[in-house]
Design goal:
Radius of gyration: 24 Å
Number of helices: 21
Strand content: 15-25%
Number of strands: 30
Strand order of the largest sheet: 5-4-17-16-18-19-20
Distance between the termini: 42 Å
Structural class: alpha/beta
Shape: globular
């Protein structure tokens, strides 16, 4: 039928085999009760979420589990009072005060690893909270922008804010002064907390200078910053060339001397109060401030950390994300610390000074839970495919997060990194969702390479076509993945923009905007997915990552995955190139593993692999074998830049990339 082209993708991906977790893992797992899915069925919704909230210490219990009166801006655990900082720090002191809370690994290998106990974390959070309250004048409900790198001062500052009920907005340290300034303006922060410098790829980067630009940008937009608090990478020594502005800029290490030993009582906050804002880029317009609650969010990430991440207090857990993103908020700071874990924070680049660095850290700290992204896994596989075998570490559990993972890459992660002895959870979720939506429960269900798995307990996914018809499991057709029900980790709204929140996430499938019934408000994630007969979800990428070739909608992830079946290929990126006849056609960019050379024969081999795996309709117009992909500082491939090169449009500002020089190299190669 002619409408079919707009309703769903063609899906040609084969289903992969099941791989079962080892008995040794299942025997120690936190969640092995198969009745969990019945307990969290829609018949038991929303009261089932009491199980999540009961993992926390409450100052006052709630009277309403889910308030739908302002649908779809859901309120969870209404009437409850709680403090997030208390739940992540204070409550562990009786049992775990001498246990490591944070292992901080500086990038320079000659600097010692810092092992910070829960007692030390408690002291530092309290003293920092005293500075924020008594010196900076911050109080519950105020917003403060953090532009901090991956050092312990970042979680300390977040927890100090949470202690006071101050709303923190952490901006990824790799973002420019312009991007940070826009977020200061949107959140109406009058205090910026930054650091003078930090290490990245062997260089001590001047970070304070970026903060100065941010303050100027915010001022032009109409938001004044009256205090800039600067943590120093080396206390007592200023490592930035930027001037210190009298009366505005203050060094935290000097201020803290005045507050030594001070304690600050945790402020009892309403459960539906705001814990933080996390800005996520929109496809158009200004960045969206995802507004996350205190009680619902913390309950959600604590349960996920305990049961999907399988964190026990005795585990050494390393999530190799950046706290500047939601993964770091949920699964470096709030979730693991609420579970009394020992969480690892690494300052630098995974492959600095060489491809063995990550595995040396894992060996030294005896890390047994490892959490990273497919981008990082592909990088590590490319830089040193045999490196993990040289080191003596053993992971019981590994996570992949942030984007779909190709089965080929998954198998390397399982066989080489996990030594065929770890349970892998391939999680799917978003900034907006707070925590996991789809994943296998590691102690209960087998893994399937490339599939995120079914909805986690309490989450009920559904796949709709563009007309709102449900696509049944096993139909072999993909559509828009939605969630039928609300959940406690879901953002409350977009900060100061309720209309945008409703139209972006609910506009497409809501039939009655006046309804107060949660059943009328399926959440639309903006991702395309296919649901297998067994209920496992495979994410195919963003709905806008679609190449519609002559009426056939092709998921870019499917083409990239096909390219990665070629042994020489380390990374692949597909973009839509304009074509007079077909509208658009796929252009394929690939980077090779070390030791392989580009050639016309290899390009043809890769093109043929795509035709074989996906179909001739997906054959790339061109296969460009490039020395490296243009990447953000967090390691994501910038497909937008590749699309600009293929389509001969302006590539825009590339200064914030980790490797800006490669852009011109690729442009010359492709455009001649």
């Amino acid at each position: 039928m002619s409408e079919e082209k707009s309703a769903h993708y063609s899906v040609t991906w084969q289903e992969e085999e099941y791989i079962y977790p080892p008995n040794s893992f299942v025997g120690q797992a936190n969640l092995t009760d198969p009745n969990i899915f019945q307990r969290f069925s829609l018949e038991n919704f929303p009261e089932c979420y009491k199980e999540f909230a009961d993992l926390l210490d409450w100052d006052q219990y709630w009277h309403t589990t889910l308030d739908t009166s302002d649908a779809p801006c859901w309120k969870w655990f209404v009437g409850g009072k709680i403090n997030a900082s208390y739940n992540c720090v204070d409550r562990h002191l009786a049992k775990y005060k001498n246990k490591t809370a944070i292992h901080f690994v500086p990038e320079p290998e000659d600097e010692p690893i810092v092992h910070m106990t829960y007692q030390e974390l408690y002291r530092r959070v309290n003293e920092t909270a005293a500075v924020l309250r008594d010196f900076a004048g911050l109080k519950a409900g105020d917003r403060v922008t953090l532009h901090l790198p991956m050092t312990p001062e970042l979680p300390i500052t977040m927890l100090a804010c949470a202690r006071l009920g101050v709303i923190h907005s952490q901006v990824f340290a790799g973002f420019s002064g312009q991007a940070c300034g826009e977020r200061i303006w949107d959140s109406e922060s009058r205090v910026l907390i930054t650091m003078d410098a930090y290490y990245r790829n062997g260089k001590l980067l001047d970070h304070k200078a970026v903060g100065d630009i941010a303050v100027e940008v915010a001022k032009k937009e109409g938001q004044d910053v009256d205090k800039v608090l600067i943590w120093r990478r080396y206390p007592g020594k200023y490592s930035s060339s930027a001037p210190v502005i009298e009366g505005r800029d203050f060094f935290m290490d000097e201020l803290l001397k005045e507050y030594r030993g001070k304690t600050v009582a945790p402020v009892s906050m309403p459960a539906e109060g705001i814990l933080f804002l996390m800005y996520t880029s929109g496809s158009t317009g200004r960045p969206k401030g995802a507004q996350h609650s205190i009680g619902g969010y913390l309950a959600y990430v604590t349960w996920m950390s305990k049961n999907i991440q399988d964190i026990h207090p005795e585990d050494v857990y390393w999530c190799m994300a950046d706290i500047g993103w939601i993964t770091g908020h949920s699964f470096i700071v709030y979730g693991p610390l609420a579970c009394a874990a020992s969480t690892v924070i690494y300052e630098g680049v995974p492959t600095y000074p060489d491809a063995g660095r990550i595995w040396r850290i894992a060996e030294e700290l005896n890390v047994n839970i490892f959490h990273t992204s497919p981008t990082a896994i592909r990088q590590l596989r490319k830089a040193g495919p045999d490196e993990p075998e040289k080191y003596n570490f053993n992971f019981k559990h590994m996570t992949t997060v942030g984007e779909p993972i190709e089965p080929e890459v998954w198998r390397w992660y399982y066989n080489v990194v996990g030594k065929k002895n770890a349970a892998i959870v391939d999680t799917w979720w978003q900034t907006e969702t707070g925590g996991f939506l789809c994943s296998t429960v590691p102690g209960l269900a087998p893994m399937k390479p490339g599939s995120a798995g079914p909805g986690v307990p309490g989450i009920h996914p559904v796949i709709f076509d563009d007309e709102g018809n449900e696509i049944e499991a096993g139909a072999g057709k993909a559509g828009n993945i939605c969630i039928r029900n609300p959940w406690p980790g879901l953002m409350q709204t977009i900060w100061k923009d309720r209309d945008r929140f409703v139209s972006t996430y609910y506009g497409k499938y809501n039939k009655n905007p006046d309804s107060k019934d949660w059943r009328d408000w399926p959440y639309m994630a903006g991702d395309a997915a296919v649901l297998a007969k067994d209920g496992y979800v495979r994410i195919l990428g963003r709905v806008d990552d679609v190449i519609n070739v002559a009426g056939h909608r092709l998921g870019t992830k499917e083409i990239e995955s096909a390219a990665l079946t070629v042994q020489e290929v380390a990374e692949a990126a597909v973009i839509a190139a304009k074509d007079e006849i077909k509208g658009v056609v796929p252009d394929l960019y690939v980077a090779l593993k070390p030791g392989f050379e580009a050639s016309d024969e290899l390009a043809a081999k890769i093109s043929n692999a795509v035709s074989t795996v996906v179909g001739k309709i997906a054959r790339p117009r061109a296969v460009h074998i490039v020395p490296d992909m243009p990447k953000t500082r967090s390691g994501k491939i910038m497909r937008r830049i590749l699309a600009s090169i293929s389509n001969r449009t302006d590539v825009g500002d590339v200064t914030s990339l980790s490797n800006p020089d490669v852009v011109e190299h690729i442009r010359k190669q492709v455009q001649g």
